Amino acid sequence: MARTRPGTRPAPLTAAVLALALAATACTPGDTATDEDTVTVGMLHSLSGTMAISEVTVRDAVQLAIDEINADGGVLGRQIEPIIEDGASDEATFAERAQKLLQSDDVATVFGGWTSASRKAMLPVFERNDGLLWYPVQYEGLEASPNIVYTGATTNQQIIPALDYLREEGHTSLYLVGSDYVFPRTANQIITAYAQAHDMEIVAQEYTPLGHTEYSTITNDIARTEPDAVFNTLNGDSNVSFFQQLRSAGVTAQDTPVLSVSVAEEEVEGIGADNITGHLTAWNYYQTTETDTNTGFVEAFTDTYGADRVTSDPMQSAYNAVHLWKAAVEEAGSFEVADVREALDGTTFDAPEGPITIDGTTQHVIKTARIGQVNDQGLIDEIWSSPEPITPDPYLENYDWAAALTG
């Protein structure tokens, strides 16, 4: 389990200031903001900055789930009232806004985050305050905290199935490109360890800052080195520039497919279908996923936000999180974090991706891996899926080749 990081030592307070501070923090997340009619939750996503291209739709999905639950009578007879904060694509802002939601707003739980940098910045805040964060996005694994429920995929539910798929298709040389922060660098350590164990070649590893837009050097190098495939861990609007410049460099999906793990339907729309058609993605859900629940989900989302809007894996996982939280609260008969945590194991929801279940040991979700291919309409068609839902293994304990990664 992740351990709480020590906080900084506070400066001495005068008696008056101390009294105000005590008053401001008299309520803790254990005494959640509820009355006879409402319960307050936090929504914390990047509504501005480089990650807004991805996170605004996640905010919308959380709001849709809240509206559905409220229309159905709420949670334990209370209506959910969200407090919306902007993480502004900045990890320090995510930590500061999380602290506000837990201490000043005294929310029952928080739905939020995208990048691993934002999650890791928030993690000590939630552990220090014993709050509960529902994190909706696939990530690099090697983490588990009693104060986070991970509703997106961990490594063995996305990255490893993606590598298995590429290898089975005969792609044995990979070019790695990613944003320069914890998720891509850790993911690429895992990819490199996998490659060494499976006779695959890593042609190059290149990293750029979030928001970077100049990719001609990298795309020309991809064209020159001719890898079998590119494994892409870029995040946010950098993907727009990367795929546009990749196409300009003459790299095609037929010759050198790019497999992305942070490009979903929302990002495809921003990139432009002409620039990414034929390239691959690895997720657990697509708008085209064929389940009865997904049909209703897509209709509800487009009815609410417009026929031109698309659904995606992260926003679907965020939507699922609200319903899973409701189910755990009602199982516990309480909004208190300790009670909800106790009720998490085995909590299920008939999600758009298919039925999902929380694994209480890791607080991750059991889910099916899916490989997709972008079509010329800007949607993603599923071309492969795991035979059955995959139990989360965030520390890769069941993979001998990963032993050196986890100590």
Automatic annotation (TrEMBL):
SUPFAM superfamilies per UniProt: Periplasmic binding protein-like I
Taxonomy, superkingdom: Bacteria
Keywords attached to this entry: Signal
Protein name per Swiss-Prot or TrEMBL: Urea ABC transporter substrate-binding protein
Signal peptide from the UniProt entry: 1-26
UniProt cross-references to InterPro entries, sorted A to Z: ABC_urea-bd_UrtA, Peripla_BP_I
Gene3D superfamilies: 3.40.50.2300
Gene: urtA
